[in-house]
Amino acid sequence: MSMIAAFYGGKAILITGATGFMGKVLMEKLFRTSPDLKVVYILVRPKQGQTLQQRVFQILDSKLFEKVKEVCPNVHEKIRAISADLNQNDFAISKEDMKELLSHTNIIFHCAATVRFDDHLRHAVQLNVTATQQLLLMASQMPKLEAFIHISTAFSNCNLKHIDEVVYPCPVEPKKIIDSMEWLDDAIIDEITPKLIGDWPNTYTYTKALGEVVVQQEGGNLNIAIIRPSIMGATWQEPFPGWVDNLNGPSGLIIAAGKGFLRSIRATPMAVADLIPADTVVNLTLAVGWYTAVHRPKSTLVYHCTSGNLNPCNWGKMGLQVLATFEKIPFERAFRRPNADFTTNNITTHYWNAVSHRAPAIIYDFYLRLTGRKPRMTKLMNRLLRTLSMLEYFVNRSWEWSTYNTEMLMSELSPEDQRVFNFDVRQLNWLEYIENYVLGVKKYLLKEDMAGIPEAKQHLKRLRNIHYLFNTALFLIAWRLLIARSQVARNVWFFIVSFCYKFLSYFRASSTLNV
Ligand SMILES: CCCCCCCCCCCCCCCCCCCCCCCCCCCCCC(=O)SCCNC(=O)CCNC(=O)[C@H](O)C(C)(C)COP(=O)(O)OP(=O)(O)OC[C@H]1O[C@@H](n2cnc3c(N)ncnc32)[C@H](O)[C@@H]1OP(=O)(O)O
Ligand SMILES: NC(=O)C1=CN([C@@H]2O[C@H](COP(=O)(O)OP(=O)(O)OC[C@H]3O[C@@H](n4cnc5c(N)ncnc54)[C@H](OP(=O)(O)O)[C@@H]3O)[C@@H](O)[C@H]2O)C=CC1
């Protein structure tokens, strides 16, 4: 019997960010392994015209929860969606709901965050720092609370090269930042943002670092742990391989490459691609929840959930495997044949951006205009280039994360728990994982049917022929223009033609003699 699964039985668990990528995988695993848990409170905001209940039903109706419905048929009764907005005071939770949360909650998993790299500092601070502070305040009023698990990111200290499992201080105290956000206007915040974030690449990583400091400073007597996943990718094994539901991290780029939009990316092929499957993160999170509640470590432990030091893969290997998978499992209606490459300096990046990204987009938009349709490719390409420029920082560097606490925890688990809550990335086969990832992107993000693969392959063949035709025509035109203008080119041309003619004559003569 799994000790961790048994631990969550009968518990009241509060999850923030349950409607996000990690939150869904976390809920799924909790219900599948501990169907006898008491209740899962989720803080949800109404969104895109959907009520809370509609949002919950949409999650439960997805393929991700198919297995859960078998082992826990009354799952919908055990989820208690609480209307909350983490941007508001007291999260805008009603008095009755707050009372219930405070008196019942046993474990908190705080996953909610803004993960946008370009978010305005005020908003990023509100969600990643102030909301964490407020949640800690709530937690301190929960008499039955056993553990508070805060999800951060391995990149919260990406301004360092070697990162230990400790909370690093920030140059400006989080409290001062929170205070200043209250009275500074947006224009001034915009002006001081680069100075405040210093050598962090964006407001996301900076505010996640501030969030950790808040957790450490304001955790009081709570049993707290911090988990730092690196780049969360599709699921590895559970509940099935390849599940993914948003465009963050590599997923958006896999689509862009598979559809033929992405032709080049400024990345260092040998840099470590520190991806970590979402189910691995969730298994570690649940194990940490159990360990923190049962063993009550004296200080706040930080756990790195990374792959680089135990089972490294680099961007070169990853990129090649992604491209190889497109050969077997192409995406439908590609714009061009998938054929991306890495560039390593600014000049080649600008060159390929102009030739391979912008020029085809302009030509295609011209074609759309000619045929009476609305041009859209240039806009899409500009967005892609903006995304690439934001991700560049992370694909041109390698970091070393120590994993002592994570390895210690692994050794504390029973063999059964090591199997059920496996977070040992040494067992991960990258090539297989990446293939399943691409397949998952096709099925769950693009919602494409496997039956469409033969047609997708045909489409790619047509694109290849168009590509060859286009290149040949382009070459002939360029050559014709060159011949018209340059005596040297004319001489070369006559030399080639006479050489071919002589070769053919010789070949014909010798084959006649043979007869
Ligand atoms: C040795 C020899 C070697 C040879 C090798 C040859 C091989 C060739 C290589 C081939 C390449 C093949 C494929 C590539 C696969 C691997 C490439 C790897 C790159 C991976 C990089 C990962 C880096 C991640 C770093 C993570 C660090 C921190 C991790 C975390 O803690 S948190 C999670 C990370 N957060 C994010 O990822 C969020 C990023 N997103 C944003 O910040 C924003 O969305 C934005 C990118 C700034 C865009 O903002 P906008 O306002 O412009 O847009 P909006 O968000 O409103 O969306 C608009 C539309 O765009 C879509 N979209 C959103 N995000 C993405 C995305 N990431 N990619 C693509 N598209 C995206 C969105 O859906 C909207 O679409 P619409 O609804 O249709 O309008
Ligand atoms: N994805 C990754 O690669 C990595 C993620 N992480 C961390 O993991 C955690 C989960 O990330 P992930 O699941 O990918 O993120 P998502 O963007 O998928 O999910 C974010 C969640 O936060 C919720 N949320 C955002 N704003 C509010 C608000 N104002 N009120 C209530 N809820 C809100 C969202 O709700 P809604 O659905 O309503 O928008 C959503 O449920 C984050 O803390 C992130 O920093 C760490 C490393 C890597």
Automatic annotation (TrEMBL):
Source species: Bos mutus grunniens (Wild yak)
One GO term of the biological process aspect: wax biosynthetic process
Membrane-protein topology: Single-pass membrane protein
Protein name from the UniProt record: Fatty acyl-CoA reductase
InterPro entries xrefs: FAR, FAR_C, FAR_NAD-bd, NAD(P)-bd_dom_sf
One GO CC annotation: peroxisomal membrane
EC number, as in UniProt: 1.2.1.84
Coiled coil: none
Gene that this sequence comes from: FAR2
Membrane-spanning intervals of the chain: 466-483, 492-509
Biological function: Catalyzes the reduction of fatty acyl-CoA to fatty alcohols.
Gene Ontology MF, one: alcohol-forming very long-chain fatty acyl-CoA reductase activity
Catalytic activity: a long-chain fatty acyl-CoA + 2 NADPH + 2 H(+) = a long-chain primary fatty alcohol + 2 NADP(+) + CoA; docosanoyl-CoA + 2 NADPH + 2 H(+) = docosan-1-ol + 2 NADP(+) + CoA; tetracosanoyl-CoA + 2 NADPH + 2 H(+) = tetracosan-1-ol + 2 NADP(+) + CoA; triacontanoyl-CoA + 2 NADPH + 2 H(+) = triacontan-1-ol + 2 NADP(+) + CoA
